[in-house]
Design brief:
2 copies of one chain form a homodimer. With about 250 residues, the first copy, chain A, is an alpha+beta fold. Chain A has 9 helices and 8 strands. Chain A has 2 domains: about 70 residues, Winged helix-like DNA-binding domain superfamily/Winged helix DNA-binding domain (Arc Repressor Mutant, subunit A), CATH 1.10.10.10; about 170 residues, 2-Layer Sandwich (Beta-Lactamase). The interface between A and B is large, with 67 and 67 residues. Chain A binds a DNA duplex (30 and 30 nucleotides) through helix 1 and helix 3.
Chain lengths: ~250, ~250
Amino acid sequence: MRETDFVSGFARGLKVIEAFGETTPKLSISDVAKATGLDRATARRCLLTLAELSYADYDGKFFALTPRILRLGHAYLSATPLPHIVQPFLDKLSEEVQQSASASVLDGTEVVYIARASQKRVMSINLMPGSRLPAYCASMGRVLLAALPEEEARALLRQTVLKAFTPRTKTDPARLMEELIRVRAQGFAVIDQELELGLCSIAVPLENDRGRVVAALNIGAPAASVPAEQMAERYLEPLRAVARALKPMLR
Amino acid sequence: MRETDFVSGFARGLKVIEAFGETTPKLSISDVAKATGLDRATARRCLLTLAELSYADYDGKFFALTPRILRLGHAYLSATPLPHIVQPFLDKLSEEVQQSASASVLDGTEVVYIARASQKRVMSINLMPGSRLPAYCASMGRVLLAALPEEEARALLRQTVLKAFTPRTKTDPARLMEELIRVRAQGFAVIDQELELGLCSIAVPLENDRGRVVAALNIGAPAASVPAEQMAERYLEPLRAVARALKPMLR
DNA sequence: GACATTTGTTCATATATCGCACAAGATGGC
DNA sequence: GCCATCTTGTGCGATATATGAACAAATGTC
């Protein structure tokens, strides 16, 4: 790609949108400049552009995103076949096993939820399509990393800040790589309270008709009612049945 | 705002993202140029920029958005307090009444879902945060339109294509305005299969601590099990209880 | 209340992008 | 197989944007 085939004003604007996050719903011009590394004058122009288009509100001091910004993500969710195809299967699966079921894909070092059917909430975090979790300590993340060429998985782990969310979180890259190899061999991953105490989950890869892994499916359950050792015997077959049923439908 | 405080490259890029939709998951350069009204060269530069930043894939012919684009909408969902505050209340409400419960806000002529707790699916459309419905024929839309100054509501209806989704859909602007006045007076709206046959819903406004309507809450139920006449007697009180409980928590 | 910082805004100019026109390549009909 | 049509890629002049410094205003500190 040539230098001139890149619209840096657009790229800068996207950076500005992403500056808004979890802990920062309202940002001043300087806040955004600092968060993005852009010049204050440039950040201001991007923010005023967002406001002009009603993607953001401006009270003269702080900018805040408006729900209109959801159109952007929705363009993906409604345009991409996978979420639509998977959703009814997750609904059925979730009802059958009386636990939450989800599907996700990999985006860099993170897992991105693309569909979800939730039963009564057991997690403190509220997951929905678009939500992200670090791949290294999520069951679907393990499955998706395990599906990559070993070198690629290793590279992603190197890029990740391996933080211990609970005392059980595995954070040693070497042990994680071993775990990925085991996951690939056995065809599923079980997470025992590595992301949140009290929460277990199990995931399997979802292949398309040509055998390429295109997503992961999981079931999450409270550790109190389903100990980690029982996850596989209870949920592996239902998950695999869904993956088998979906396989011929995925291009 | 001065002319030079607007980054048109950014605005054009956002238009390109929104060109991807329901029926158009993969678009060529010309497709996007046609859909957005941009010059082909410009559309191409925006698309290549998206691809360079991994917001889109490019196979040499077609562009498709990647899940990375969900970061943009997620910036809003995670940064805005309302969805987080409302979600656990919807969960409880949904379990209590054994029906789906949702919250939404108005964006132009459309209702945008910002949180949702779903029971077994009754709608053919799959709703999630970010999903949009036309305001004029959705229960939350009626409530949100009714909360606007009459002239503003009338203006939005004028901008809307009033399509009949079912034989029961109300599409006459004058009758809709009457309906909005009734909704405002009674403090709730009931929709009887106007959006989809077999689906009824009821919505109430959600006010903040200063009495401004900041969102709408609703419950949807299959018409077969809950006829429209029963929606209010069954669900109005539970909905209002949630709205009352939330009110002091909303700035 | 005066000083020091931070923040927002403006401006001139160097730089990058836009849209047009044209060339090259792909597609489809017959 | 050939022409008509549509699509994509590129060079260039005109136009729009980014930059960083300078100033003004607001905010925080002692």
